[in-house]
Amino acid sequence: MTNFDQIRAIAFDLDGTLVDSVPDLAAATNATLLELDLPQASEEQVRGWVGNGAKMLMRRALSFALANEVDETLLIDTMPKFMHHYGLFLEKHSCLYPNVLSTLTALKQAGYRLAVVTNKPYRFTIPLLEAFGLSDLFDHVLGGDSLAKMKPDPLPLNHLLQQWQIEPQQLLMIGDSKNDILAAKSANVTVIGLTYGYNYGEHISLSEPNEVCDNFDQIGQFLLSK
User: Which of 34, 20, 80 is nearest to 54 (CA)?
Assistant: First the structure.
């Protein structure tokens, strides 16, 4: 079992880790496709497209609807439409995963410094955290457009290390996709993979995180049982 004794700070992914946001992402995706008079996608299809940021989500959705590669001009023209629709749907159907609020609160009270590192655009990240009463728990929030690069690049995690003035062995990443695992490994930080989120149909264990959890409250067994 991994030794978590040195951990002082924790970075969390958002979509598929803290919040099940696919229902609203699917609604926004289909509203965008409808506006373009294109075929609709199922929620399960959208679930498999999430994880690499809004632009990649729409690239995958358009590729599905057109049954072809997406012209870059069309993608650029489509993004404002998607952003508009997602802003309307942002917290209509999304929900926290079980035990997220209680576990985050316990970690904060135990003295851990907490951050969100997501590939979701920052403009949508803050309102979503506020809608679920999570925003006051985090010292730092990094969206997919907050820095020059996003996960799986290690830049967001390296940024946190610099901001907090801590060593890699003191930071823990928690996420549901291989992008989270790859970013953590590149930054030389410990990582826990969650099995219930969005990972393109692959079991998170295939990306070889340090530990795997089926439920969010299992994180407390590693960090709160000292």
Answer: 80
